[in-house]
């Protein structure tokens, strides 16, 4: 069994090699963010910080310049929070109900609606930008958090519906029929029977929508201005603001701040995501 | 059952409630997705520049687009980026999935490590890699410090190579996701097939090559679709990493569209390029969706 | 009007005709079995009775009303599903109470019903468990309990035992029968298992290809199957079909039977009935137990045993008559080994005849 041992060794070596590859950027971001600029210039990417300082973090959060204003990322962070909560809640709710109808209450034409939504999943959002910007101007929600939430809901319905629909297809129709015979109607079946069974897919959808919307840049860039810009726009402005000296430690601290919520969600609930994604997305 | 049986529905509530409840989402999609696609299509035939106008100019904007060097750079970049990004992400993802499927200790931890980049915004990824690939202080300096003084890595500022930095960062971010999809697929394969093949005397690599990977065709296709979709709409990564530069050497259609529509005051050109993106996606997606929906019945 | 009447019900999807004109009527308290091979339309018919699918044409009467346009919940029926369809997130108590709750039954009354049902099915100890924590048999019991809680005028059972193992299936079969005796409610029961059909039913509808092949009492269907499909579908081992030629010899109408070692002319019991068909080919249907060891001298045919299959109480003997494989059911002590010759006698009073072309029974 000598060759077996060798091949096990190779398997682990490759796996660990890739683990290092995925982790290195995180390491670099973290160490860079706690170094001083002098140390950054003096050392190199991988050198360990000599004097750990959180000055870059507080600057990134509170006083770094993102263009003409120097407010740090804090306002952008809270903009994102204000945007992500309603957008995730509304798109997930609509997705759950749509999925329920498209799997358990089919009617003539419901397959067409489903096909329409599915195709919407793949449309490059660039084709929506100009008309959406014009319309939001008319509606008076351009450059506002409301406008951003609206865009995210419209563009999120397709994926949330698909997730829930694929999950609900797996719930036996007999269960719905039993509930109908028990006298329950459309809403009662949803609340009492279907929704309590939906925890796994609910987790997937919440995580998915949260990361998608939190990480979105395109819509944030096009549909928001000054007071409502999300954190991705803030980070990009911060990192690309051409001040006299480039402060990489502040950039890295800002990048980590922007990434923290989604990383936290992944580490805390990632296993539900992988499990549920396997059930939903792979089946297509 | 021979056909999908639609349940009998009685009374106003059962018959109309589902349609009524589905209607808002349907209308939202119809108006704000399909309506807007049509609207954007219409804009692409007008002389809109800084502001939209509805002066019909036929295919003029498309002629301008096809005569525009920057557009062709963006298209060429999309091909380079798409092929490398999809190909390498697939290879790495499949390799990691197969290796992780060998009853590995600490599988959960490794999986989390491979997958976490997917949780990041492309803006975060771009910012991080921009720093690491920085010609002055990044990778290059590290190699110099380690004694390899002739090492040069200037892709970020080299117009011929800048698009490949986008490829590198893209693969780093997305290959873990491919791994997750394939791992899930592998876990779905019936163990007894593998046992039967082992009894037949097949070696493990052979089992994977001949039996398991062919069985993963559907996963392969849906992953391909997802990656192609990510590639075509790639925008954030380019903006954060290279800003499309140097010059416009690392432009992609998505950044080109944004530049024309929102910074250069060329709305007609921007909408025409968006339509080209839509057509490209449709050419790939429509046949795929059609076969999926057929099969799903 | 009886408890359930189905009048000329059809169901089609485009050109696919699932049900082609079904007529059934049963009385209060009867146990109706819908039996047939898969794809025969029995489940569709059941769903139409329940109101889960609607018929393309025809009428469904439950009690004294036409229920075509009545929602399932208002038909005063309860159903036990093949997969049990227990609500997975509710415990047994909540599962049973759900139907009562939606109908606005007061809490106190709900409790009483749950206790009554739990006692009846001996599942008091399961009330606080979730379906996932129950065995197959227990789930089956809860599904029945949920149906019983409602006290409807019609119970529907959709292959309720098909997911149980063999031993449990027999136990639950008996239990369902006892329940029916005690409650005396009308039951419609779908199954593909002919033993379940025979043991449980008062009335059996044998279905194939969307058509009722025969509708009658179990005994009637067993003894006087209306066609070769019903004859072969009901009874295990299946009825033997022996092709033979009707002839007249010495003033008696009968058939010639040939085995590998013997040949004999066997007269029919009331041959006069078949006078018109003399000279024609017919198929003689013989149940295995109608082919027994001859103890006297009567009409026995020497048959060479090819194979024996002991089942315990009986032994099956496989042999050939008129070139067809034939099974005989004999007492174990009479059975002989392969290669030996046994003298087998036909119970000519019970055999039936079929027309080989139409496959219908000849009277």
From TrEMBL, chain A:
Pfam families: BPD_transp_1. It is a multi-pass membrane protein. GO terms for biological process: transmembrane transport. It is found in: Cell membrane. Residues 77-269 form the ABC transmembrane type-1 domain. PROSITE patterns: ABC_TM1. The keyword Ubl conjugation does not apply. One of its GO terms (cellular component) is plasma membrane. Its main location: membrane. Keywords: Membrane, Transmembrane, Transmembrane helix, Transport. The chain crosses the membrane at residues 9-30, 83-101, 113-133, 145-168, 189-211, 250-269. PANTHER family: ABC TRANSPORTER PERMEASE PROTEIN (PTHR43879), GLUCOSE IMPORT SYSTEM PERMEASE PROTEIN GLCU (PTHR43879:SF1). Belongs to the binding-protein-dependent transport system permease family. This is Glucose/mannose transport system permease protein. It comes from Silvimonas terrae.
From TrEMBL, chain B:
The chain crosses the membrane at residues 20-42, 78-100, 112-132, 163-186, 267-290. CDD domains: TM_PBP2 (cd06261). Keywords: Cell membrane, Membrane, Transmembrane, Transmembrane helix, Transport. It is a multi-pass membrane protein. Belongs to the binding-protein-dependent transport system permease family. It comes from the Bacteria. This is Glucose/mannose transport system permease protein. GO terms for cellular component: plasma membrane. It is found in: Cell membrane. GO terms for biological process: transmembrane transport. Residues 75-290 form the ABC transmembrane type-1 domain. The lineage of its organism: Bacteria, Pseudomonadati, Pseudomonadota, Betaproteobacteria, Neisseriales. The keyword DNA-binding does not apply. InterPro entries: ABC_transporter_permease, MetI-like, MetI-like_sf.
UniProtKB/TrEMBL annotation, chain C:
Signal peptide: none annotated. The keyword Lipoprotein does not apply. InterPro entries: AAA+_ATPase, ABC_transporter-like_ATP-bd, ABC_transporter-like_CS, ABC_transpr_MalK-like, ABC_transpr_MalK/UgpC-like, Mo/tungstate-bd_C_term_dom, NA-bd_OB-fold, OB_MalK-like. Residues 4-234 form the ABC transporter domain. GO terms for molecular function: ABC-type transporter activity; ATP binding; ATP hydrolysis activity. Pfam families: ABC_tran, OB_MalK. It comes from the Bacteria. This is Multiple sugar transport system ATP-binding protein. It comes from Silvimonas terrae.
């Amino acid at each position: 069994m000598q060759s077996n041992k060798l091949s096990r060794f190779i398997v682990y070596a490759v796996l660990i090699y890739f683990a290092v590859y995925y982790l290195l950027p995180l390491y670099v971001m973290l160490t860079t963010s706690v170094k001083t600029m002098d140390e950054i210039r003096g050392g190199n990417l991988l050198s360990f910080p000599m004097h750990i300082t959180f000055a870059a973090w507080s600057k990134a959060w509170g006083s770094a310049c993102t263009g003409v204003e120097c407010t740090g990322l804090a306002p952008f962070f809270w903009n994102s929070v204000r945007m992500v909560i309603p957008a995730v809640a509304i798109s997930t709710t609509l997705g759950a109900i749509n999925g329920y109808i498209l799997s358990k209450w089919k009617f003539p034409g419901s397959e067409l609606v489903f096909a329409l939504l599915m195709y919407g999943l793949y449309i490059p959002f660039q084709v929506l930008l100009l008309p959406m910007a014009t319309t939001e101007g008319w509606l008076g929600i351009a450059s506002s958090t409301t406008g951003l939430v609206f865009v995210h809901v419209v563009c999120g319905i397709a994926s949330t519906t698909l997730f829930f629909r694929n999950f609900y297809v797996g719930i036996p129709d007999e269960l719905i029929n039993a509930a109908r015979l028990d006298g329950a109607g459309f809403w009662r079946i949803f609340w009492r029977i279907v929704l309590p069974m939906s925890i796994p897919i609910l987790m997937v959808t919440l995580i998915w929508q949260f990361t998608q919307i939190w990480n979105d840049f395109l819509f944030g860039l096009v549909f928001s201005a000054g007071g409502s810009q999300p954190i991705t726009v803030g980070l990009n402005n911060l990192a690309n603001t051409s001040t006299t000296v480039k402060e990489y430690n502040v950039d890295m601290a800002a990048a980590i701040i922007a990434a923290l919520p989604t990383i936290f969600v992944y580490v805390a609930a990632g296993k539900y995501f992988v499990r549920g994604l396997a059930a939903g997305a792979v089946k297509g | 059952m021979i056909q999908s049986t639609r349940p009998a529905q009685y009374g106003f509530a059962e018959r109309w409630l589902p349609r009524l409840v589905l209607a808002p989402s349907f209308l939202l999609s119809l108006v704000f997705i399909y309506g807007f696609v049509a609207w954007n299509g219409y804009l692409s035939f007008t002389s809109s520049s800084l502001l939209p106008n509805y002066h019909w100019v036929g295919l003029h904007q498309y002629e301008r687009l096809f005569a525009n060097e920057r557009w062709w750079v963006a298209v060429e970049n999309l091909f380079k980026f798409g092929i490398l990004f999809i190909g390498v992400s697939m290879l790495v993802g499949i390799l990691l999935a197969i290796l992780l499927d060998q009853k590995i200790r600490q599988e959960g931890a490794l999986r989390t490590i491979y997958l976490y980049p997917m949780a990041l915004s492309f803006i975060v990824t771009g910012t991080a890699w921009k720093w690491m690939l920085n010609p002055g202080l990044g990778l290059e300096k590290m190699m110099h410090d380690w004694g390899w003084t002739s090492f040069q890595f200037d892709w970020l500022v080299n117009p011929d190579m800048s698009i490949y930095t986008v490829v590198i960062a893209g693969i780093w971010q997305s290959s873990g996701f491919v791994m997750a999809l394939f791992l899930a697929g592998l876990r779905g394969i019936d163990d007894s097939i593998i046992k039967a093949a082992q009894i037949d005397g097949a070696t493990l690599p052979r089992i994977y090559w001949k039996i398991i990977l062919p069985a993963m065709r559907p996963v392969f296709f849906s992953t391909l679709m997802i990656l192609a979709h990510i590639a075509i709409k790639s925008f954030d990564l380019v903006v954060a990493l290279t800003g499309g530069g140097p010059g416009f050497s690392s432009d992609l259609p998505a950044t080109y569209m944004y530049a024309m529509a929102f910074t250069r005051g060329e709305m007609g050109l921007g909408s025409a390029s968006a339509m080209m993106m839509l057509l490209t996606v449709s050419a790939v997606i429509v046949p795929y969706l059609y076969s999926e929906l057929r099969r799903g019945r | 009007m009886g408890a359930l009447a189905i009048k000329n019900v059809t169901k089609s999807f485009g050109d696919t005709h699932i049900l082609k004109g079904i007529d059934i009527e049963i009385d209060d308290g009867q146990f109706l079995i819908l039996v047939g091979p898969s794809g025969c339309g029995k489940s569709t018919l059941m769903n139409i009775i329940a109101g889960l699918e609607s018929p393309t044409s025809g009428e469904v009467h439950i009690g004294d009303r036409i229920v075509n346009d009545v929602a399932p919940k208002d038909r005063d029926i309860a159903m036990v599903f093949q997969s049990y369809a227990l609500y997975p997130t509710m415990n047994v108590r909540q599962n049973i109470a759900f139907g009562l709750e939606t109908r606005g039954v007061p809490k106190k009354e709900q409790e009483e019903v749950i206790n009554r049902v739990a006692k009846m099915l001996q599942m008091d100890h399961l009330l606080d468990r979730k379906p996932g924590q129950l065995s197959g048999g227990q789930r089956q019991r809860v599904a029945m309990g949920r149906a019983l809680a409602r006290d409807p005028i019609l119970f529907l059972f959709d292959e309720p035992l098909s997911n149980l193992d063999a031993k449990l299936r027999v136990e639950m079969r008996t239990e369902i029968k006892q329940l029916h005796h005690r409650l005396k409610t009308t039951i419609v029961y779908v199954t593909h298992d002919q033993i379940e059909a025979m043991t449980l039913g008062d009335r059996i509808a044998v279905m194939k290809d969307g058509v009722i092949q025969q509708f009658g009492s179990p005994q009637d269907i067993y003894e006087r199957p209306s066609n070769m499909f019903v004859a072969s579908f009901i009874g295990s081992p299946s009825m033997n079909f022996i092709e033979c030629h009707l002839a007249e010899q010495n003033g008696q109408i009968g058939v010639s039977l040939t085995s590998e070692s013997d040949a004999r002319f066997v007269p029919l019991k009331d041959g006069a009935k078949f006078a018109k068909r003399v000279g024609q080919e017919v198929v003689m249907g013989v149940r295995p137990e109608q082919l027994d060891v001859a103890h006297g001298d009567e009409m026995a045919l020497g048959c060479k045993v090819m194979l024996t299959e002991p089942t315990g109480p009986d032994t099956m003997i496989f042999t050939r008559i008129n070139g067809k494989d034939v099974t005989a059911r004999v007492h174990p002590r009479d059975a002989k080994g392969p290669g030996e010759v046994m003298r087998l006698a036909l119970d000519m009073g019970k055999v039936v005849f079929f027309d080989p072309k139409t496959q219908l029974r000849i009277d």
